[in-house]
Amino acid sequence: MSERRVPCPSCGARVVEGARKCRACKAWIGERPRGSSASLSGREPRLARAAVSVASGLAAVVIALVTSLKSPVGEAPPLTALTPEGAAASSEVRDEAPNPAAFGPDPAPPPPPVERKGRWRAREFRIGDVHPLDVVFNPSGASIYVSGDDASLREYRLDTGEIIHKASVPAQGDHIRLLFDRYVAVLRHVDAARIPVMDTTAWDRDPVLLDVGRSPGDIVALPDGKTVVAATTDTKRVTKFELPTGVRLSNITLPHATGQLFLVQAEGRPYIAALGALTHAGRPAGAWIDLFDPSESPFGATRRSIAVGREPREGDITADGGAVFFPDRLSNTAVLLSVAGVTETRKVPVGVGPTAGYLLQGDRYGITLNAEARTASVIELSTMTVKSTLPFRGEPRTGVTSPDRRTLFVALGGTRWPPVGSGVAVIAGDPPKVVASLPTGKGACAVAVSKDGARAVVASYWDRSITVLEQQ
Question: Which spans in 32-87 are helix H?
């Protein structure tokens, strides 16, 4: 009976069926002898041994191993395990298949994208049948106070737009001011002689009326927590009142109409800085700041006047209270007036028609809103030089800075009344730039920011709406 022959799995030569070793290539067929040093985890490699070279009496054996591993079920085999440290020898057989441990651990999945800070989103709610005139935040940040053209003061919840409180006041609120985080003063600049002050802890009571004289201009709270100082334009009067009684404590009459009041720090204590102007034949004829200590008696006895230009507009004070920054519209300049000690005035030309000035980034920069040019001028205060000019998508009307003075919100309603423009610009960064331009309703007339700076609101006259800006 002839022997049956089958091909060698390694070289293909015909070998007797059942043979353990091929005579042609010397490869083992079937199970290896026990104790064989060529065994690799029970798998069947095909080995091609390299040449052996001997030089200078020193023998070095180099074995090139070309491995083709097979699985009994035809699947790719697992990779060879690592040799324990110290167990390697010059004559050991190495598997050249890639070892994942040689490349370190598996790479971690990529982290989720980091959400960018400082982005703003806008949402809107309607306030009913009233045109809003001005807006300020409740100290909690959860609601806002809105003055309406129906001579009302209202409080709205920000998350839902629900009206919480409503009170009638003797005059429309062209501007409203929050005093001592409790009272809201309603300023009607024409056709009025009193300032209603609403206690927001007692909406069922009538507001206290402060008799200030014709055409109220501004009102500020003093550090004692109970007295305020108000100014007028027509009667040129500056008066001190006590809250909540509304009792008039003292007053003085200045030679010019006072439109703005600042609480500054001069000679190491709080001073009132009353910014006002004279007119001749209906034209601006000069402007002054009057400085005095409101606690001294008689009231205004230490007053001193400083000429500051021709037509000053809305301004700001430095964080330490030692300087006032404001634009002069007629001369197209920005003014920085130091009042802490010896008064000093510095000026710089800005864009056409500046209407308001603000301070940013730790008082490093002054920003003027230039209505006619539709731009903002960025001024480095240390050198009083214009560093850049920022264009707007509309005509700026007014603005407000966040409490940390890192962000400025600008309502783009325009200077005519009622305003017709829309939109809000957000200025931030070092140096400052426009980081967002967001839509609002038609007639963006007023803007306010919360104490924590996380929210801002814009009141829109024609749309009778409030646009809420929130950080994402």
Answer: none
Show the beta-strand stretches assigned E in 69-172. Answer: 120-126, 132-137, 143-148, 152-157, 163-168
What sign for the dihedral angle of Cα 235, 239, 243, 247?
A: negative
Nearest to 227 by CA among 245, 200, 207, 201: 245
What phi and psi, each to the nearest 5 degrees, are found at residue 89?
A: -130, 160
Output DSSP code: residue 100: G
**In the chain, domain spans:** 1-73, 121-165+392-472
* C-alpha span between 426 and 72 (Å, rounded): 70
Q: What angle do CA 117, 121, 124 make, to 5 degrees?
A: 155
67 to each of 30, 82, 409, how far by Cα in Å?
Answer: 17, 16, 71
Q: Which of 35, 33, 36, 7 is nearest to 22 (CA)?
A: 7
Q: How confident is the model at residue 84 (pLDDT cuts 50, 70, 90)?
A: very low
- Which residue in 465, 455, 451, 452 sits closest to 426, CA to CA? 455
Give, in order, the Cα–Cα distances in Å from 241 to each of 186, 217, 321, 324.
15, 15, 22, 24
In angstroms, the CA 437 to CA 136 distance is: 21
Smallest CA-to-CA distance from 329 within 346, 315, 344 is with: 315
463, two tokens:
């749309």
Whole-angstrom Cα distance, residue 332 to residue 350? 6
Taking CA 204 as the corner, what is the angle to CA 203 and CA 205, rounded to the nearest 5 degrees? Answer: 90
Which letter does DSSP use for residue 214 in this model? Answer: S
Extract the tokens encoding 149. Answer: 């053209």
* Residues whose CB falls within 8 Å of the CB of residue 314, separated by 6 or more in sequence, listed in order: 260, 326, 355, 356, 357, 398
Containing 324, the helix (H) or strand (E) segment is strand 323-328
- Model confidence pLDDT, tens digit, residues 15-39: 777 777 777 776 777 644 444 444 3
Q: How far apart are CA 199 and CA 68, in angstroms?
A: 89
Within 8 A by CB and 6+ apart from 424, the residues are: 122, 409, 410, 411, 412, 437, 438, 440, 444, 447, 456, 458, 467, 469
Q: φ, ψ for residue 291 (rounded to 5)?
A: -110, 135
pTM: 0.75
Contact between 358 and 399 under an 8 Å Cβ cutoff? The reply is yes
pLDDT at residue number 90: 39
The DSSP 8-state label assigned to residue 151 in this structure reads T
Whole-angstrom distance, CA of residue 344 vs CA of residue 179: 30
CA 384 to chain centre: 25
- Contacts for 451 with CB less than 8 Å, ≥ 6 apart: 137, 139, 141, 403
More confident residue, 300 or 469: 469
